[in-house]
Amino acid sequence: MEKVRYYPVFLDLRNRHCIVIGGGKVAERKIRSLIEAEATVTVISPDLTEEIERLCRSGRIRHISRSYQKGDLKDAFLVIAATSDKDVNREIFEEASGKPLNVVDMPDLCTFIVPSVIRRGNLTVAISTSGVSPALSRSLRLDLQDCIPEEIGEFLDFLGALRRRIKGREGSEEILKEVGSQRILRTLVLSGVEEAKEEVKRILAERGLEGLVDGYL
Q1: Helix ranges (DSSP H) in the chain
Q2: pLDDT beyond 70 at 2
Q3: Is residue 62 within 8 Å of 23, Cβ to Cβ?
Q4: Where are the domains of the chain?
Q5: For 1-114, which CATH superfamily applies?
Q6: What phi, psi does 115 have (nearest 5°)?
Q7: How many C-beta atoms lie closer than 10 Å to residue 210's C-beta?
Q8: How far apart are CA 172 and CA 194, in angstroms?
Q9: Which pTM does this prediction carry?
Q10: What is the pLDDT of residue 215?
Q11: % helix, strand, coil for the chain, step of 5
Q12: At residue 207, does pLDDT exceed 90?
């Protein structure tokens, strides 16, 4: 297979129509990720896992209870083929021309691949081996997620609030770089979120801005 240099990108799928073809465990994982991204999801499959059935009953996703048919992708923004039928996958590939398409375990038919992901609030870390070894991507995710504290999501919310208050002030760019520096990150990892916030407070106090974060610390 020709080596592919993928361009890493994050898509805004809010209210975008995404179609998943297949109703097994792999499709289930893909559907969950799409729901997290607030996509509008349709699953096409005669058979579903219990979890996908539950999502259908709850109204979170729409279900078309049959196999894929040509024309199903007409209104799709993004398509994921999670079937074990290579002939069907190729038919999907032909119809999906021009649409973002992921075909599970057939990277030569994909126009995008899905990385292993670590989420901590607004932090998203994506890991990919360019489709060479999804298993290694998962192993790296498991190792790396232990290095990223759960509290980083809370700290990012705090930094976001600070950024909104300070943006446009003189020297704001330098301050924002400092409060997001490796030194602050090390404090967060080694000493916890409260100590990291105190460190930010000290940085602001040095510039006469200590009142800027009242209500956030």
Answers
A1: 25-36, 50-57, 86-95, 134-145, 152-166, 172-179, 182-191, 193-206
A2: no
A3: no
A4: 1-114, 116-148, 152-213
A5: NAD(P)-binding Rossmann-like Domain (3.40.50.720)
A6: -80, 170
A7: 14
A8: 22
A9: 0.84
A10: 59
A11: 45, 15, 40
A12: no
pLDDT in tens, 119-137: 999 999 999 998 888 899 9
27's CB contacts (< 8 A; 6+ apart) are: 20, 21, 43, 45, 49, 52, 80, 82
3-state secondary structure labels for all residues of 142-206: HHHHCCCCCCHHHHHHHHHHHHHHHCCCCCHHHHHHHHCCHHHHHHHHHHCHHHHHHHHHHHHHH
pLDDT tens digits, 56-96 = 999 999 999 999 999 999 999 999 999 999 999 999 999 99
Distance CA 155, CA 197 (A): 8
Is residue 96 within 8 Å of 109, Cβ to Cβ?
no
Sign of CA dihedral 193, 194, 197, 202: negative
pLDDT in tens, 149-170: 999 999 999 999 999 988 888 8
Q: Could you give the maximum distance between any two Cα atoms of the chain, in Å?
A: 67
Give me 149's structure tokens. 């504290």
Classify each residue of 128-161 as buried b or exposed e, where b means 16 or more C-beta atoms within 10 Å of its C-beta. beebeebeebeebbeeebeebbebbbbbeebbee
The residue with tokens 């070894």 is 133
